């Protein structure tokens, strides 16, 4: 039996290396158009010819402007204008599926994402078993017995990873495999979280969130999950242990105990429900439900609305944040003291001391400080971290367009070009609706929507007024709203290089000052005395977005009597049902049941998931009948594309 398993693994590796040798040093799946389940297309005039700091300039407007010198000046990249062409949109789609900005180095060599019980051969074996059928939840057999966060996982156990594999593909969605330094390395692209495979057809839904991606489990299984400790809130006792270790390390010149820290961090990650991810670095565990990428008119971006400035109304800022912050914690080394109160040397040492790759593993025996050691192995010298980034003019200070100080941009591209291209392309996406709706009930639901006053906030053709609501007013779980507060310690005015600036940056590269709304930035970042807030999201694509609210706490399954709250749905492997979860969003009695179930869970309390707030009811106590309530749900599910 062992011999057969060994032969199978060898064959899988041979297949992987053979494919890479034939097709190049990288394998990444980009679905052809006939493998995509698309929504109704946006009208052609809704796709602009230029973006100028969020202002959309149509082709007709551009033609008129190009006839005057003043107009041509406004459309120039020297003025910050980003030109949108079919080729630019194609670049954005390719980057969405393929571009890692080099994060496979951090994820594989430093974090050890496939060095633990979930390995590349184990994933390939699971994919081959599908025989091309595809899945929205790759079940992977653990390669060895491991104890993670105090919990033992036995070798051979099948675990739900939530990794998507499109029908007909032998590659995971959004997880390029690269051959580098004689080793298979796995990276992450936007598509891993912001596209999904429809279970019934195996087709890819571009822009829909991958709501069963088990990020917490995948990171906990990494051999050096400490590398991601800034996203892992520890309990007061655990935080005390961490601070103690760091204090002792400061006195002795050493570093914290690796086994103890690993255990504490893993415990936190194992608490995350599937479909959740913590994209903030405030030493708290604030996982939010993965958002969709149906972004047209959905500005500002990010749950708190922090991404409100820059190209495409801040969408490029939000896209940058995913790669500049979330896939390489080393990039925060220059600002670790003002953000976390941790010295740069200790910060680097903690992250690198247990790296699975000997090349990146720091030990005192090297005779170097952590920063000296990292400089000797850094694949991207001259910039912090290992990802492909450039340094904005205000670096290392935080700005409204670069909250963590850096911008991802690959050599050979233009400054911020890939972020801008992905933003332009995401703004063309609309959600498909794979369920039949009763048009009469939809029309009745629209009347309820208007009578209930939902349009006060969810207004216009994209169903948002683009405002950030103070957390005290909206009443939802407050922890995430203040996650970026410490950036106020190092904040500066925003400047960006002109969109035609080549990478690597030339000396004296031209810059533009980026316009921004100080009030929106203050609220989105929770600066000063502000407690922060949450943006008013668009309602387009609600079918694909259950559970609801920023913390994903409003979750109800198919069975209204027993599947209420996250403990009875996501934590038991049962998906949130869009209809019933929307019902819980507007019915106070059903919401109370959801909140009560969530509050019973110590796990959810520790990661700040409650499902509270947004107390805008459409129920019997508000004067609406059950029939009207159901009609409203039908209408909300019908919102699929911005209308002219």
Can you describe this structure?
By secondary structure, the chain is an alpha+beta fold. It folds into three domains: 2-36 and 98-217, no CATH class; 218-424, no CATH class; 442-486 and 537-637, no CATH class. 33% of the residues lie in helices and 9% in strands. The chain has 22 helices and 20 strands. A three-stranded antiparallel sheet has the order 1-9-10, sandwiched between helices. Strands 3-2-4 form a three-stranded antiparallel sheet. A hairpin with a 2-residue loop joins strand 2 and strand 3 (55-57). Helix 4 packs across helix 15 (417-426) and helix 19 crosses helix 20 (588-600). The termini are far apart.
Sum this structure up briefly.
This protein is of the alpha+beta class.
Distance between the amino and carboxyl termini = 63 Å
Spatial strand arrangement across the major sheet: 1-9-10
Question: What global shape is seen?
Answer: globular
Percent in strands = 5-15%
Compute the number of structural domains.
Answer: 3
Strand runs, count? 20
The total of helices stands at 22
* Multimeric state: single chain
Helix content: 25-40%
Question: What's the average pLDDT?
Answer: 92
User: Radius of gyration, rounded?
Assistant: 24 Å
Given helix and strand content, the structural type is: alpha+beta
pLDDT below 50 for ≥5 consecutive residues: which ranges? Answer: 1-14, 16-24
How many strands, what sense, and barrel or not for the largest sheet? 3 strands, antiparallel
């Amino acid at each position: 039996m062992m011999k057969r398993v060994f032969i199978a693994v060898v064959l899988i590796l041979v297949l992987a290396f053979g494919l890479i040798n034939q097709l190049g040093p990288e394998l990444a799946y980009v679905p052809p158009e006939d493998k995509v389940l698309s929504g109704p297309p946006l009208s052609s005039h809704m796709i602009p010819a230029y973006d100028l700091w969020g202002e959309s300039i149509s082709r007709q407007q551009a033609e008129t402007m190009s006839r005057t010198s003043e107009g041509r000046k406004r459309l120039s990249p020297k003025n910050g204008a980003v030109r949108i062409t079919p080729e630019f949109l194609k670049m954005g789609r390719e980057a969405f599926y393929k571009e890692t900005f080099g994060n496979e180095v951090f994820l594989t060599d430093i974090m050890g994402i496939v060095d633990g019980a979930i390995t590349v051969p184990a994933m390939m074996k699971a994919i081959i078993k599908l025989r091309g059928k595809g899945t929205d939840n790759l079940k992977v057999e653990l390669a060895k017995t491991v104890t993670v966060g105090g919990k033992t996982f036995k070798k051979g156990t099948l675990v739900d990873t939530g990794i998507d594999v499109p029908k007909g593909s032998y590659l995971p969605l959004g997880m390029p495999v690269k051959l580098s330094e004689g080793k298979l390395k796995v990276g992450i692209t936007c598509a891993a979280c912001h596209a999904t495979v429809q279970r019934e057809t195996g087709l890819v839904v571009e822009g829909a969130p991958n709501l069963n991606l088990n990020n917490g489990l995948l990171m906990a299984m990494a051999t050096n999950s400490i590398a991601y400790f800034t996203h892992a809130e520890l309990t007061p006792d655990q935080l005390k242990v961490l601070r103690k270790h760091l204090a002792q390390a400061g006195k002795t010149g050493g570093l914290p105990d690796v086994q103890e820290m690993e255990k504490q961090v893993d415990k936190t990650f194992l608490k995350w429900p599937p479909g959740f991810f913590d994209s903030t670095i405030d030493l708290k565990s604030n996982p939010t439900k993965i958002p969709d990428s149906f972004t047209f008119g959905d500005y500002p971006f990010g749950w708190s609305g922090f991404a409100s400035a820059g190209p495409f109304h801040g969408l490029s800022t939000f896209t940058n944040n995913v790669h500049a912050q979330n896939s390489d914690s080393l990039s925060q080394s220059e600002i670790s003291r003002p953000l976390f109160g941790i010295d740069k040397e200790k910060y680097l040492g903690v992250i690198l001391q247990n790296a699975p790759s000997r090349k990146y593993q720091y030990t005192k025996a090297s005779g170097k400080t952590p920063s000296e050691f990292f400089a000797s192995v850094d694949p991207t010298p001259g910039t912090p971290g290992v990802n492909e980034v450039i340094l904005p003019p205000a670096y290392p200070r935080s700005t409204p367009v670069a909250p963590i100080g850096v911008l991802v941009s690959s050599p050979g591209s233009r400054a911020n070009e890939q972020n801008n291209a992905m933003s332009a392309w995401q703004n063309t996406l609309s959600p498909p609706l794979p369920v039949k709706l009763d048009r009469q009930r939809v029309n009745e639901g629209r009347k309820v929507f208007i009578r209930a006053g939902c349009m006060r906030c969810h207004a216009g053709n994209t169903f948002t007024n683009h405002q950030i609501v103070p957390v005290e007013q909206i009443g939802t779980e407050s922890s995430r709203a203040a996650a970026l507060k410490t950036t106020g310690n190092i904040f500066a005015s925003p400047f960006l290089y002109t969109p035609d600036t080549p990478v690597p940056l030339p000396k004296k590269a031209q810059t533009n000052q980026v316009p921004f709304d100080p009030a929106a930035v203050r609220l989105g970042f929770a600066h000063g005395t502000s407690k922060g807030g949450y943006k008013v999201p668009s309602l387009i694509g609600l079918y694909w977005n259950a559970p609801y609210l920023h913390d994903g706490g409003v979750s109800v399954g198919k069975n209204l009597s027993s599947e209420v709250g996250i403990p009875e749905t996501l934590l038991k492997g049962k998906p949130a049902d869009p209809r019933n979860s929307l019902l819980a969003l507007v019915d106070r009695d059903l919401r109370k049941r959801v909140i009560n179930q969530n509050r019973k869970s110590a796990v959810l309390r520790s990661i700040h998931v409650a499902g509270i707030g947004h107390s805008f009811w459409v129920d019997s106590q508000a004067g609406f009948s059950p029939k009207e309530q159901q009609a409203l749900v039908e209408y909300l599910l019908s919102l699929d594309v911005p209308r002219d």
